[in-house]
Amino acid sequence: MHQYLNLPIKSIKKELNQLNNNLNKMITADNPILYAAAEQLFIAGGKRIRPVIILNTAKFISLNKTISTKQQRLAEITEIIHTASLVHDDIIDNCDTRRGINTVHNVFNNKIAVLAGDFLFAQSSWYLANLNHLSVVKTISKIITDFAEGEIKQGTKSFDNTISLNDYTEKSFYKTASLIACSCKATVLLDKTYSYEANNFYLYGKHIGLAFQIVDDILDIISTSQELGKPAGLDLKNGNLTAPLIFTLNKYKKLYTLIDKEFQFKNDINEAIVIIKQTNSIQKAKDLAVEHIQLAIHIIKEQKISNKNNIDLILICYYILNRFN
C-alpha cells in the first residue's frame, strides 16, 4: 500500500484552483443571512475529493488530456450538491462541528440551515440545467433523489439490530456512492468524443464511493473527535448501524441490549466501541472496502486505449484506503 498517499492533484491543479474561486461566485445570494450560511460551508474547505475524481476522469478520457468548461462546471455542481447534503445531514444527525468548525445550524439555527441547504440544491440545479445536456441533467438529478431515499432508509433502520449488510450497502449507495457514480458517468457523457463506455465509469464511481463510506464508518469507530473534525461515535449515537457494528452483532449479545436502549447512558457508546474493537470486525469492514477498491481498479485497467495513463484514477483508489494512516 502507498504509505501517506496524497490525492493526485498535480495534473489538475489549475482546474482545482479555478473551482475554489468559482464556488464562491456560484453561491452568491442577495439575502446576507442566506449567503453567510452558504459561505460557512465553504470556509471549512475539505479535500474536494469528488471534484478531484471528476477532473481526473475528464483528463483521462480526453484525447488531448484537456478538461472542457462543461466538465469543469460539473465538478463545481457536484461539490455544491455534496455540500448541500452535508447541511441537511448535520441537522438530522445533530452534529455541532464539521471539519473542525461549527456547523451551519449551530452558527445560525435549524430553519436557516435547512434554507441554506435548499438554496444550494437550487443553485446546483440551475447551473446543471445550463449545461444544456439532457442525459447529464437526468443522471445528476438522480443524485438528489438518492440522497433523500438514503436518509429515509437510514431513518427507518435507526437502532434496528436486524439490519443486514445488504441494507447497509444499499443505504451507503444512496447516501454516498450515487453522487460519485453518477458524476463519473456524466463526465464521460460530456466528452465530445465519447470513446468510453459511460456505465463502466459509473461502476468505478460506485465502488470507490462504497469504499469511501465504509472507511468513513470505520474511522467513526477508531478515531478521536479531533482527528475526525466532528464527534466520534456519532453514527452509533444516532442509531446509524454501520459495517463494523453489523459484523460484531452476532458475536456479542450485549450489543443488542445497548442498541435496544438506544445507547441512553453516557458510557454506552464507549462500551459498544470497546466491544467492536475486541473482535475482527474492523478488519472485516476494511476487507470489504478493499474488495470495492479492487473492483474499481480492475474497471479502470480494463479501459485500454493507446497512450492513456490511468495512474491518477488508480491513485485515488489507494488514497481512499490510505485514510486509515
Automatic annotation (TrEMBL):
Keyword Protein biosynthesis: no
A Pfam family: polyprenyl_synt
GO biological process: isoprenoid biosynthetic process; quinone biosynthetic process
PROSITE patterns documented for this protein: POLYPRENYL_SYNTHASE_1, POLYPRENYL_SYNTHASE_2
Molecular functions per Gene Ontology: metal ion binding; prenyltransferase activity
Keyword terms, alphabetized: Chloroplast, Isoprene biosynthesis, Magnesium, Metal-binding, Plastid, Transferase
CC cofactor: Mg(2+)
Similarity comment text for this entry: Belongs to the FPP/GGPP synthase family.
Name of this chain's protein: Prenyl transferase
Organism for this UniProt entry: Vertebrata thuyoides
Lineage: Eukaryota, Rhodophyta, Florideophyceae, Rhodymeniophycidae, Ceramiales
Gene name tied to this protein: preA
